[in-house]
Design brief:
Length: about 700
C-alpha cells in the first residue's frame, strides 16, 4: 500500500467524526435561527436563514476536518503507540529510506502498525458542547415564539387626541390604539396605529382598543349612517372589531350621548388596483433571415404582486389574400423577478406552432394579481410578428419592383424630425454603412411625405425646385407632366381650348384648385424645403437636413392655420309676404313668437335647496335645517361625488351645531363642488328702458 493510501486509511475515521460532530453542534442553532426567521419574516425568510446557516456550518466543518493532516497523524501515533518507537513518520512518506537502517526500521514498525485500528484515533464526541448548544437553541426558540411581534399581543395604548374637556362623572376617552390586519394576499404586516383615522387596504380587519376615565358602562362606536358597534370589556380596556370593506365615518361615544359630542374619525378603504401589463418589445416585428424562434417580452406590475404564472394567447394568421386561416391557442408561461414587477419572456418556436412565411403571429399576455378570493385578470397589449412572403416575379417574366407585405405607413414631418435627431444621437455607436442606410431610409420617408403634399400643387413639385437664377422654361416632353395625346384636329385660331392644348396643360381637376393663392405659395415653400431635406438625407448628411425639415414643418403649420372653407351662401326660406295686409295694422292670425322654455331636469334638488338655505339669499335659514333629504342624496350619488365621506362629515357637523358659521361655510362649499354644472340655457330679454317703454306705448296706442 502506498504512503498516500495508508495515510487516507488511517486519517478517514478522525475526519468523519470531526465533521459529524461539528454539524451536530450546529443543527440546534440552525433550527433556532430558522424559527426566528419564520417568526419575523415568514417562510421565505426562514428558508433564506436556514440556507445561509447551513452553508456556514458546512464551511466550518470542512475547516475543522482539515486540521487532521499528516503531521497530526504522526504525532498522535507516536504519542499513543510506544511500539512504533517514534518512527511512524517513516510509514507515511513516499521517499526511499536514506540508509539500510531506516529501511529495516520501516519494515519493523509496518508490521506493528496493523496491531491497532484507525477508529482508535477518532476524537470523542463533544457531549458537553452539544448540551450547551441545545439549551441555547431551546432558549432562542422560546424567546422567538413568546416575544410579541408588531401587531401581536396586547397593544401599547397612545394618549387620546380628541381634546374633549373633562366633566365630573362623564367618561371620556384617555387612551387608544387601532390595530390594522391587512388581507393575507397583500403581504403587508400587521400594524398598530396611535390615531383612530387610517387608510387601510380594502378587506382589512380593524381592532380598536380603548380606555376611558372614569370607567364607562356601555361605550359604543357610532357608525355614521350605519348601526353602532358595542364595545366589550377586556380588563381595564374596551375592544371592538370590524371589517373595512368600504370607507366609513365613526365616532367614539363613551357616555351614550351624555357628554360633549366626540369628533368624527375616518377610515379610507383603498381598493386593490388591477395589474398593469406593458410590452417591452416593439408592437410590430419582422422575422429576420435564419430566425427560428421569437421571445416577446412583457412587464407586469401590481401594487401587491402579480401571480408567478400567466397565460399567453397566440393567434396565427397563415396565408395571403382570401386563403388566410386563423388559429388561436393559449399556453402557460412563467415569470421571473419580484412579485410586484415580474418579467415574462416566453420562447416561441416556429416549428411548434406551424408558423411559416406569409403569416402573422399575434401574442397577448393575460396576467392575474394575488388578490383573494377573486383575483383580477388583465390582458396586455398585442404584439405582432410578421413573416413577409418571398418576393415573386411579375407575370411578364421580367424582374421588377414588387410591393412588400408591409403597407407604406404615412410619416409626419414631426416624426421625420424626431427620427433625424435620434439618428444624430446614435451616430457614434453606428457603423458608417449602417448610418448611411438609416439616413437614406429617412430620406425615403421624406420623399413619400413630399409626394403627399405635392398632390395639392397639381404634382408640379415632384422634381427639384427651381433655382433662384433659373429662367422659366416652357412645358415640353420629359418635364414630368402628362400632356395627353397629340392634337390631331386642326386648331381654330383664337379658341382658348385649342391654345391651352397646344401650348400648356390644365390642372383644373387638381386639389390645388381649392387653395387660395397665398396658401398655395406657402405650401410650395414647404415642399421645396422637404426636397432639400430629402437630398441631404439621401446623401448621408442628416445634420444638414435638419434645418430644412424644421422649415418645412413651420410652413406646414402656417398652411394648417391659413386653411379656409368656403360655403355657398344659402338664404333662409321665408314665407311669401302678403302684400294686401301691409300697412293695415291687422294682427289677426298672428301666433305668439315667445319660445317655450323647457325645465332642465336636475338631480341635485336636495343639494341645491340646502345650498340656498346655507346662504344669505331670501331662501336662507339661520337655524336648524332639515338635512335628511340631503343624506339620501349623498348615499344615492356617492359614486359620482368627489368625496362623499367629507360631505357626510360636513352634514353631521351642521346637524350637531346648526349655528356654527365655519361648519355651514364648509358644507356650502362642498355642496357647490358636488352639484352638477348647469348647461347653457336661454337668457331672458332685458326689460325695456324709458325710451323703449315710450316707443312700445305709442305702438300700442296706434293700434
Amino acid at each position: 500500500m502506498s504512503a498516500d493510501a495508508l495515510f487516507g486509511h488511517w486519517i478517514a475515521p478522525a475526519r468523519r467524526r470531526r465533521f459529524a460532530d461539528t454539524l451536530t453542534l450546529s443543527l440546534p442553532l440552525i433550527l433556532a435561527l430558522a424559527v426566528i426567521g419564520w417568526r419575523w419574516g415568514g417562510f421565505v425568510a426562514a428558508l433564506l436563514v436556514t440556507t445561509v446557516s447551513l452553508a456556514v456550518a458546512l464551511a466550518v466543518a470542512r475547516q475543522r476536518m482539515a486540521r487532521f493532516d499528516r503531521p497530526w497523524l504522526i504525532r498522535t501515533l507516536d504519542a499513543t503507540r510506544p511500539e512504533l518507537e517514534d518512527s511512524s513518520a517513516l510509514l507515511f512518506t513516499d521517499e526511499a529510506p536514506a540508509s539500510p537502517l531506516q529501511s529495516l526500521q520501516r519494515s519493523r514498525i509496518a508490521a506493528r502498525l496493523d496491531q491497532g485500528a484507525p477508529q482508535e484515533l477518532a476524537p470523542a464526541w463533544s457531549s458537553r458542547l452539544l448540551l450547551l448548544s441545545s439549551l441555547l437553541a431551546v432558549g432562542l426558540i422560546a424567546a422567538a415564539l413568546l416575544w410579541p411581534r408588531a401587531g401581536e399581543g396586547p397593544p401599547t395604548l397612545a394618549p387620546s387626541s380628541e381634546g374633549l374637556p373633562a366633566k365630573p362623572g362623564i367618561p371620556r376617552l384617555v387612551a387608544q390604539n387601532l390595530r390594522i390586519i391587512p388581507p393575507a394576499y397583500t403581504g403587508l404586516p400587521v400594524r398598530d396605529s396611535a390615531s383612530l383615522d387610517a387608510r387601510v387596504p380594502q378587506g382589512s380587519h380593524l381592532e380598536w382598543t380603548l380606555r376611558f376615565d372614569p370607567q364607562a358602562s356601555t361605550p359604543k362606536l357610532l357608525m355614521l349612517g350605519n348601526q353602532p358597534i358595542a364595545l366589550r370589556p377586556d380588563g381595564a380596556n374596551w375592544i371592538a372589531s370590524r371589517g373595512a370593506d368600504a370607507a366609513f365615518l365613526y365616532r367614539v361615544d363613551p357616555a351614550a350621548g351624555r357628554g360633549p359630542t366626540p369628533p368624527l374619525h375616518r377610515i379610507d378603504a383603498i381598493a386593490d388596483a388591477p395589474p398593469q401589463v406593458k410590452a417591452l418589445t416593439d408592437s410590430l416585428t419582422l422575422v429576420k433571415p435564419g430566425q427560428h424562434n421569437w421571445s416577446p417580452a412583457f412587464a407586469a406590475t401590481d401594487d401587491y404582486g402579480v401571480a408567478a404564472s400567466a397565460r399567453l394567447r397566440v393567434t396565427l394568421a397563415i396565408g395571403e389574400g382570401e386563403n388566410v386561416t386563423f388559429s388561436e391557442r393559449e399556453i402557460p408561461v412563467s415569470g421571473n423577478g419580484p412579485a410586484r414587477d415580474r418579467r415574462f419572456t416566453p420562447r416561441l418556436d416556429f416549428s411548434t406552432f406551424g408558423f411559416a412565411a406569409g403569416g402573422d403571429m399575434v401574442v397577448q399576455l393575460i396576467v392575474r394579481d394575488n388578490r383573494a378570493p377573486n383575483p383580477q385578470e388583465v390582458r396586455g397589449p398585442s404584439l405582432i410578428l410578421r413573416w413577409p412572403s418571398p418576393k415573386a416575379p411579375e407575370s411578364s417574366g421580367l424582374t421588377g419592383m414588387v410591393n412588400t407585405t408591409l403597407p407604406a405607413y404615412f410619416r409626419s414631418q414631426r416624426q421625420i424630425i424626431i427620427d433625424i435627431e435620434k439618428l444624430l444621437k446614435e451616430k457614434r455607436s453606428l457603423a458608417p454603412d449602417r448610418y448611411l442606410a438609416r439616413s437614406a431610409s429617412i430620406g425615403g420617408d421624406q420623399q413619400i411625405l413630399r409626394g403627399r403634399y405635392s398632390q395639392f400643387l397639381g404634382g408640379e413639385n415632384e422634381e427639384a425646385p427651381d433655382l433662384p437664377t433659373a429662367d422659366g422654361a416652357a412645358h415640353g416632353e420629359g418635364d414630368g407632366h402628362d400632356h395627353g395625346p397629340p392634337v390631331s384636329a386642326p386648331n381654330v385660331f383664337g379658341e382658348k381650348e385649342d391654345v391651352l392644348a397646344e401650348f400648356g396643360h390644365p390642372h383644373d381637376e387638381s386639389p390645388a384648385s381649392s387653395l387660395d393663392p397665398e396658401t398655395r405659395a406657402i405650401l410650395k415653400q414647404a415642399v421645396d424645403e422637404m426636397w432639400q431635406s430629402e437630398r441631404e438625407l439621401k446623401t448621408g448628411h442628416p445634420d444638414a437636413a435638419l434645418p430644412y425639415a424644421y422649415k418645412a414643418l413651420r410652413f406646414i403649420k402656417e398652411v394648417q392655420q391659413a386653411t379656409r372653407i368656403f360655403l355657398s351662401r344659402v338664404g333662409p326660406e321665408l314665407p311669401p309676404i302678403d302684400a294686401s295686409r301691409r300697412m293695415t295694422g291687422k294682427r289677426e292670425g298672428l301666433a305668439s313668437r315667445q319660445l317655450e322654455i323647457a325645465p332642465v331636469e336636475q338631480q341635485d334638488g336636495p343639494a341645491a335647496a340646502v345650498w340656498r338655505a346655507l346662504g344669505d339669499g331670501p331662501d336662507a335659514i339661520r337655524g336648524a335645517i332639515n338635512l335628511a333629504p340631503l343624506d339620501g342624496w349623498v348615499r344615492t350619488n356617492a359614486t359620482r361625488l368627489p368625496d362623499a365621506l367629507a360631505l357626510s362629515g360636513a352634514i353631521d357637523a351642521v346637524r350637531q351645531d346648526p349655528v356654527c358659521a365655519a361648519c355651514r361655510i364648509k358644507l356650502r362649499a362642498l355642496l357647490w363642488a358636488a352639484m352638477e354644472r348647469p348647461s347653457g340655457r336661454l337668457v331672458r330679454r332685458r326689460p325695456a328702458d324709458a325710451v323703449g317703454a315710450r316707443y312700445l306705448d305709442r305702438i300700442g296706442a296706434a293700434q
